[in-house]
Amino acid sequence: MNNQNLLSQYQNYLTQLSKSPKTIQEYTKDISKYFQHYNTQPTTLQRDQILSYKNYLQNTKNINAKSINRALSSLKSYNEFLIATKQQNNLAILSQDYIKVQQQLTSPTNVTTKEAIRFINKIKEKECFRNYAIVTVIANTGLRISEVLSIKLNNIYLDDYEITVIGKGNKQRTIIINKMVVDVITEYLTNHRNKSKYADTSEYLFVSNKGSKLKPCTIQRIFNEHSKKITPHSLRHTFATNALENNILDLRSLQQQLGHSNLSTTQIYTHPNKTKMKKQLNMKEACIG
Questions:
Q1: Res. 51: pLDDT tops 70
Q2: C or N: which end of the chain has fewer Cβ atoms within 10 Å?
Q3: How far is CA 215 from the centre of its chain?
Q4: 193, 202 in Cβ contact below 8 A?
Q5: Do 108 and 131 meet the contact criterion of CB atoms below 8 Å apart?
Q6: All residues at 6 or more sequence positions from 227 whose CB lies less than 8 Å from its CB, including other chains
Q7: How many angstroms separate the CA atoms of 87 and 44, rounded?
Q8: Per-residue pLDDT tens over the stretch 112-168
Q9: Of 95, 77, 98, 89, nearest to 31 (Cα)?
């Protein structure tokens, strides 16, 4: 069996585990790099090669610990697939192989509310209403781009200010929407969606011009065209920080809205923002000497 067929089987395995297309793409990329490094097409993973590869990434390529751990996680997932399909008996990656990383103590948010508003207005001016609506929904709900593009018409409850979405791990949750989202979706449904020739056949809120489900990369390209800084995920961060700093949502409510399995993931937004820290530490009062 060649490497490509094996990777295809692995991708099908991940799909059955309800992994997202992005996760499958990233895992496959990491595993392909490992194969390319050894210029082989192995069906099994050898522990000595894993350790050698880790050393290569760490000391030759000088890759950061977080990226190395991700590569190891991808290989461990592939290893588990080999075991599940009886092509290997043992795990070649152990928990002790991961590099300990100090927990991030600063918020990941790097886009201010004012910057987000300027970006949204730019999209409204330059892009079609569908794209403006997508950006507005992300910024006002904190949804992941994949979740927004997966919203189905029969899961929208505008009168109740609610939308049911499918998140990571194929988990369903109901999120709350504000009046701005209600208004922009109402406008899109009333005056814009019906202009698409696929409006009557698509089950999704946001209709692709090709008839199929909109892909995240399509929306990513729009972000890239209009900003070098703002991404769909950075708008999600901005929503979370704004919700906490202005006491719009408490931590538990924000966890539900964002679809985090663990509260610790949500708590990162309670940490100080790097930009604010830099500004404060450069104030006259903070300078000694």
A1: yes
A2: C
A3: 13
A4: no
A5: no
A6: 119, 122
A7: 7
A8: 999 999 999 999 999 999 999 999 999 999 999 999 999 999 999 999 999 999 998
A9: 77
Q: Which of 34, 132, 188, 269 is catalytic?
A: 269
**CA diameter of the chain:** 70
Q: Which amino acid is at 148?
A: V
- Give the position of tokens 């395995």: 13
In angstroms, how far is CA 157 from the centroid of its own chain? 25
Is 168 designated active site?
Answer: yes
Q: With residue 173 as reference, give the H or E element that holds it.
A: strand 172-176
Question: Cβ(13)–Cβ(207) under 8 Å?
Answer: no
Residue tagged active-site, from 33, 70, 152, 260: 260
Q: Give me the mean pLDDT over the 194-205 stretch.
A: 92
Catalytic residue among 19, 54, 193, 236: 236
Residue 144 is a catalytic residue: yes
pLDDT on residue 19: 87
Pick the catalytic residue: 192, 233, 271, 274?
233
CB 163 within 8 A of CB 217: no
- Domains, the chain: 3-97 (1.10.150.130), 113-274 (1.10.443.10)
Contact present, 37 and 53 (Cβ < 8 Å)? yes
For residue 166, what are the β-bridge partners?
172
Instruction: Based on the residue annotation, tell me whether 269 is a catalytic residue of this protein.
Output: yes
Which among 19, 76, 130, 144 is annotated as catalytic?
Answer: 144
